[in-house]
Write a structure and sequence with these properties.
Layout (H helix, E strand, L loop, with lengths): L1 H26 L2 E7 L7 H14 L3 E7 L2 E2 L3 H6 L8 E2 L18 E4 L10 H12 L3 E5 L10 H7 L14 E4 L5 E4 L12 E7 L13 E7 L12 E8 L10 E10 L2 E6 L5 H4 L2 H16 L22
Parallel strand pairs: 1-2, 1-5, 3-4, 5-6, 6-13
Antiparallel strand pairs: 7-8, 9-10, 9-11, 11-12, 12-13
Length: about 325
């Protein structure tokens, strides 16, 4: 009789553990919000759709999109890549949407696909977002989102460094690595934001122990993309995880410039990548991996998404069809 009781107790305990495991698995899904609608890059409707798919394919995220009521560029793509439940009104120039106020607090991480020339958000929306990130919300900055909102001091602190949008040496230093592998904070005057023609370029991991880059090859080849250079900003609480060499013959600085960046803003974690100019660049499996792992880290401080089998090698990029 005691053995039978012990057996039944063990079965009950296993059942309880199994139920707890199912509950934990369900809790692992993260709530992610992509914000977009005003971007000088004409492919932005498609790149939002691509990123949404990349996040959902990991099985780690539930994804929503909050789009401003006013947009410019990409009108022809809006219909083709429209997303369910997302209404968009196209205009020739960006305008502030007075009703744009996503509930950031409902999400674990927010991903920006805004771009250069995006109109200022309503003051309350700005305040909401500052509070969200400062209190521990995750934020991901993709490519031209570091061109946005140059006159918003708190946003500039969140993204670490940015380009264009009225930024100058008053915004903060350039940050790069020199040929000796030393990180430099350069306060000289000069352009703020630049890139040459799109081309493939190698990504060099500077911190192989960070959860985002852990397991990535020391060097891997990124697909043809704009290589952002001369980015500058407050660069507070900022860590450079990876760089790319910006050659002078390609209108670059001749420095190794940031490509994967993390920033701490209050209690919040920010992941910033200047990569991802268009749909072709976003087809890079390395970009997709860094994006999804960066978003998971921004949301939780940890990374469980594995390095996939199609990750680029030092010699060649790897492309995903979209």
């Amino acid at each position: 009789m005691p053995r039978r009781i012990l057996f039944l107790s063990a079965v009950l305990m296993l059942g309880m553990y199994a139920a707890a495991g199912i509950g934990a698995a369900e809790q692992k899904r993260l709530r992610l919000l992509i914000i977009d609608g005003q971007n000088n890059h004409g492919t932005w409707p498609k790149t939002t759709a691509m990123m949404k798919k990349y996040f959902e394919d990991t099985g780690r995220f539930d994804v929503d999109v909050a789009r401003t009521a006013f947009t410019h560029n990409g009108e022809e793509l809006l219909e083709k890549y429209s997303l369910p439940g997302i209404k968009t009104t196209a205009t020739k120039s960006p305008q502030t949407d007075p009703n744009y106020r996503p509930d950031f607090s409902a999400y674990d991480v927010v991903v920006s696909n805004f771009g250069y020339g995006a109109a200022k958000w309503p003051e309350q929306t700005q305040a909401d977002f500052e509070k969200y990130v400062r209190n521990g919300g995750g934020f991901v900055v993709v490519h031209a989102a570091d061109n946005s909102f140059g006159d918003w001091p708190e946003y500039n602190e969140m993204i670490g460094v940015g380009g264009w949008g009225g930024r100058s040496e008053k915004s903060g230093p350039y940050v790069y690595f020199n040929a000796a592998g030393e990180q430099v904070r350069d306060t000289k005057k000069g352009p703020t934001g630049s890139h040459g023609p799109q081309h493939p370029f190698p990504i060099v991991i500077r911190d192989p122990h960070h959860p985002i880059t852990d397991g990535m090859p020391q060097t891997w080849m990124h697909k043809s993309d704009e290589l952002y250079d001369f980015l500058r900003g407050p660069a507070k609480n900022m860590k450079v995880l990876a760089t790319a060499y910006s050659a002078k013959e390609k209108h670059g600085s001749g420095n190794h410039v940031p490509m994967l960046i993390t920033i701490r803003y209050g209690l919040g974690r920010v992941f910033h990548t200047p990569m991802g100019h268009d749909d072709r660049a976003m087809q890079c499996a390395g970009f997709a991996t860094a994006l999804t792992r960066g978003a998971e880290w921004a949301a939780t401080g940890e990374v469980t998404i594995p390095i996939p089998g199609d990750f680029p090698t030092p010699e060649s990029p790897k492309s995903r069809d979209n």
